[in-house]
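Now read the record:
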Amino acid sequence: MTRYWLMKSEPEEVSVDDALAAPGATVPWTGVRNYQARNFMRDDMQPGDGVLFYHSSCAEPGIVGIAEVASTAYPDPTQFDAKSPYFDAKSKPEEPRWLLVDVKVIKKTRNLTLAELREDPELAELQTLRR
């Protein structure tokens, strides 16, 4: 069974348009520094799983594209880059703390806003929308 994931990106970091402009419309999902999200990438995400590409920390947060997981998890190189805001001095190449998956955008959609998502009674139980 195909799984579906909501993956958040700040448009100033990587927007759906940036991803579409990347080679193969594929981007590495760098900068995840949440252990639960890391564990999902490591243990559960598989190539071909569906992704709802979500813009967060912006004027109108919402789902802006349909994508898919394009790789298995591998070490996020930003954790080793001292110039990166995602640098982690405790992470070592032989024992990386942080992983990423590649995400391939299939198509851009209209912005299905957070407000619209919260209005849908069928989505009322989604934990993400309760925050």
